[in-house]
Amino acid sequence: MERKSGRPRSRRWLRLLIGPLLGVLVLLSPGLTTMAGAESRPPAGAGASSWLVNMNRFAESAHSAFNCEDCHGTMVEGGKKHPDPDSPDYLVKPASRRFDYRRCRKCHQLAYDRYTEGGHAKALAEEAQTTVQTGESEKAGEVKKTVATGKATGPAPTCGECHVSHYARSKLSRVAVGTSMVTVCGRCHADHAASYMENIHGRVGVDLKDEKSAFCSDCHGAHRVIALKQTDVALTVCRRCHPKAQSEFTNVVIHASVTVPPEARSAKDKSTLWIQRVRIAAMAVLVISLVFFFGHSLLWLLREMHEKLRKR
Amino acid sequence: MAKDARTQVEWIRFSPLDRLLHLVVMIGFTGLAVTGLSLGLSSTAPARFFIWLVGGASHAGWLHRFFAVITYACVVIHGLFFLYYRLVLGQKFVGPNSVVPTFKDLKDFRLNMAYFLGRRRSPPDFDKFTYMEKIDYWAIFIGMNTMGATGLILWFPEFFTRFVPGFFVNIAQVLHFFEAVLAVVVKFFIHIGMVHFRPAVYPADMSIFSGRTSQEKIMQEHPGQWRFIAESRDSAGKR
Question: Which residue has the higher pLDDT, B236 or B147?
């Protein structure tokens, strides 16, 4: 390729490009930093309420205007000193199993009443029953539900399992709250959190920060939590965003990777198995096709090179 | 002198319709790939950056469906042209110059493998379309229609679940994703490699845009097609 004249190639056009390039980078920087650079998926299992309170964080929380006594009462209740090192419960139970959450009802009446109607309150009542019957102490709240039936792990949640009242902030965006749900709900419902993130709702809502998607509480309720096993209940929920849906629409699987042992499988769980089988088959077809296409091209390339280089 | 004459002579290899369809499919497929992968691989940084660039996931979704419509329109037009070719022009759909696979293709594959592995001196005597070109054609045929069908189910799940079980939407999503990966990987590496990085055409094979190629190129790279042209020239002469 010969140049038009004998002079050295000018670099001026390069220098002229630097300005526009920098300008483009500046314009793109919000996207590069906030979207691309930021942590995409929330970490699983963030901490819950604890005994120790970081007062700096408390000062930025929604409850910063309160005194400790407003929620915790005085240090001398029932004639006992607080804290009482001689008490058998001294620092044994987690804070969230110890606090009387009926005190939240003073300000959060609607949420509390809704909570009592839902599955979490039911689980708490069952747990209290079991503890009474077996006589186990609530040591560290480690009542283990089996994973085998695909149910949650960990103690039945009180307000304190999901809400850390010392640190919870107000005026968070819908996307921020929804994203935190993956972490919070995922502490006990890890399979569902993971399968939600693989589903379009998790991808669009959490990864891509679109508030039009559905987060955990949009379908399952925030306080009156329900499992959505009944079709008519599920259909009402789906229709919040998909108004034209009919009843079979509720059989579109959201939590497609939750594994349930054979004896506990419903019809919907069986269809989930087929999804996983199709995924494996599709992966196999993909690999075989790619091996064939690329292998064929590679062999062809080598043969052509041999022809040209060896001049045979 | 004779060589100059051969290289000077230009042959129209792609009709205006071919060139227009390829241009639209090229733009459509690229748009589909970029918007689709930014939704499918949403946890990656480039995907999230692209979504920010277009102003949100719903805009990316709209763009994806727009590109899908214009790309599938090309598939439909290609199908209509085939009907015209068959029914109006009276050309044959099968035979040595068609894209339909035959037993000869299996034989050609065997012989070509032997050639690749150095056990034969020269490649087999291909017709107008080699077996690989036929595989490319039918793979794209199956691929485009799979993507279209599964894409339609994903676009209108409320409608389709009136007729099929709900988990078909999930299966459509799995097939849509894996077929997309296959198509994008093959197009991006093999097709781009063939039309940009092959030494004979580097930096780019412009024949799909100009429609034109030299006689020498046709004779060397597409001997089956050259034979087809020569035969139809001869038969035209005989008429």
Answer: B147
Query: E strand or H helix at A81, and its extent?
Result: strand A80-81
Q: Is B62 on the interface with A (CB under 8 A)?
A: no
Residue A167 near residue A54, CB atoms below 8 Å: yes
Query: What are A76-115's pLDDT values in tens digits?
Result: 766 777 777 777 777 777 777 778 888 889 899 999 999 9
Query: For residue A80, what is the enclosing H or E element?
Result: strand A80-81
A80 in contact with chain B, both atoms CB, cutoff 8 A: no
φ, ψ at A76 (rounded to 5°) = -125, 90
Q: Identify from B50, B62, B159, B161 which residue to disrupt to test chain A contact, counting A C-beta atoms within 10 A and taking the largest count.
A: B161
**Cβ–Cβ below 8 Å for A246 and B45:** no
Instruction: Say if B187 is an interface residue toward chain A (CB within 8 Å).
Output: no
Residue B6 reports pLDDT greater than 60:
no
A175-194 residues touching B, CB cutoff 8 A = none
Min Cα distance B46 → chain A (Å) is: 6
The tens digit of pLDDT for each residue in A141-196 reads 344 443 334 466 778 888 888 888 888 888 999 999 999 999 999 888 888 999 99
Q: Check B53 against A282: CB less than 8 A apart.
A: no
Q: How far is CA A37 from CA A27, A179, B2, B52, B170, in A?
A: 15, 17, 62, 12, 30
Distance, in Å, from the CA atom of A26 to the CA atom of B238, rounded to the nearest integer, reads: 69
pLDDT over 90 (residue A128): no
> Is residue A64 within 8 Å of residue A58, measured between CB atoms?
yes
Contact A252 B170 (CB under 8 A): yes
**Could you tell me the pTM of the whole model?**
0.85
Distance from CA of B84 to the nearest CA of A (A): 32
Question: Measuring CA to CA, which residue among B74, B69, B160 is closest to residue A246?
Answer: B160
Alpha helices per DSSP H over chain A: 12-30, 55-59, 68-72, 95-98, 109-117, 119-134, 159-162, 174-186, 190-198, 200-202, 216-220, 231-238, 267-310
CB distance from B235 to chain A under 8 Å?
no
Q: Which of B42, B157, B178 sits opposite A207 (nearest CB)?
A: B42
Q: Say which of B39, B161, B190 has its CB closest to residue A248.
A: B161
Separation between Cα atoms, residue B77 and residue B127, nearest integer Å? 26
Write out the E strands in chain B.
10-12, 212-214
Element (H, E) at A77: strand A76-77
Q: What is the pLDDT of residue A47?
A: 53
* Residues B138-153 pLDDT 10s: 999 999 999 999 999 9
pLDDT band, very low/low/confident/very high, at A135 (cuts 50, 70, 90): very low
